[in-house]
Amino acid sequence: MARSGGPAPVPAGSMTGALRGRVYLRGRELYRDLPWRRTRDPYAIWVSEAMLQQTQVSRVDGRWQRWLERFPSVGALAAADSADVLDEWQGLGYNRRALALWRAACQVVAEHGGQMPRDARDLQALPGIGPATAAGIRAFAYDLPGTYLETNVRAVFLHELFPGQQDVPDSAISPLVAEACPTTPLGVPGADAPCTPRTWYYALLDYGFHLKQTLPNPSRRSRSHARQSRFEGSHRQKRAAVVRLLLDARASGAGLLPANVAAALTELESAAGRDPVDEAYAREILVQLEHEGFCRERDGRWLA
Fold first, then answer.
1. Which residues contact 61 (CB under 8 A, 6 or more apart)?
2. What is the DSSP letter of 195?
3. Which residues pair with 195 in a beta bridge?
């Protein structure tokens, strides 16, 4: 189906009544006992939501626990040096997420006395928190309803309510997700727990994960689906390498020259059989990172 023109996708029904009960029971059968599901601490849940964006569960398990040992509260994260936050994040990818967490923690301390807000608008006013992350924090920490539309949830709705349809926009799915989320606890015959926002979305996440493992991924029929761009040899890989170089150079306090960065990147690229990196490109990366808050320039050298 083309992305423009043509009739809008029509759902096969709504996620209510018997269908919601069946989906909930199936999700409960597939329940994954993940460590961040054993807490209702909104800060800990927020960290898990940030880490799980575009990162596999297997990579987050272990790193989430280590993060909380190093930064056990919003206040501890806000008080940390941004370079230490980036250092702890290494290996999870998309370093901007780490800086957004740190900046948001600083804002929570400054504006909310160090207490994570419950209101969706207050949450979305924080750096790095969009509608889905805000809904996840509200559901999993506070058991409050919301529209938590992420990839596994999307897979369930596409599979159950848009069978066979292609190029389905989130604008068609989102109202159904909002409608389906319970506003009060619901008893579901055969279920081991009442259906609340927290248990409902866990069930959707686990059922969606199962669907993606056992069927052609339903999420690929979503208009929002996009294949992740190649990392090896990409600009993104070089940026990540420069962030690591900046963090490694912190101990000396001398900072990095563009020539140092170009030489280090060239060594990495040459080992992979790719072209060398010149000093102008290295400087471009450093300036980008400085603009985004990853480093600062002093006397022609860049420091984390």
1. 34, 35
2. B
3. 186
DSSP percent split of the chain into helix, strand, coil, nearest 5: 55, 5, 40
pLDDT tens for 35-57 read: 999 999 999 999 999 999 989 99
Average pLDDT along the chain: 93
CA dihedral of 264, 267, 271, 275, whole degrees rounded to 10: 100
Q: Are 47 and 41 in contact (CB under 8 A)?
A: no
- 237 φ, ψ to 5°? -65, -40
Distances (CA, A) of 174 to 101, 147, 157, 291: 26, 7, 9, 35
Task: Report, as residue numbers or ranges, the catalytic residues.
Answer: 49
Say what the pTM is: 0.88
The CA distance from 64 to 52, in Å, is: 10
Bridge partners of residue 296, in order along the sequence: 303
Backbone angles phi, psi at 31, to 5 degrees: -55, 135
Phi-psi region of 180 (alpha: psi -120 to 50; beta: other; left: phi over 0): alpha
Distance CA 90, CA 60 (A): 12
- What is d(CA 15, CA 178) in angstroms, rounded to the nearest whole number? 10
The predicted pLDDT at position 198 comes to: 98
Grade residue 1 by pLDDT with cuts at 50, 70 and 90. very low
Share of the chain above pLDDT 90, in %: 85
**Contact present, 42 and 142 (Cβ < 8 Å):** yes
Start-end of H helices in 151-278? 151-161, 170-180, 197-214, 235-248, 258-271
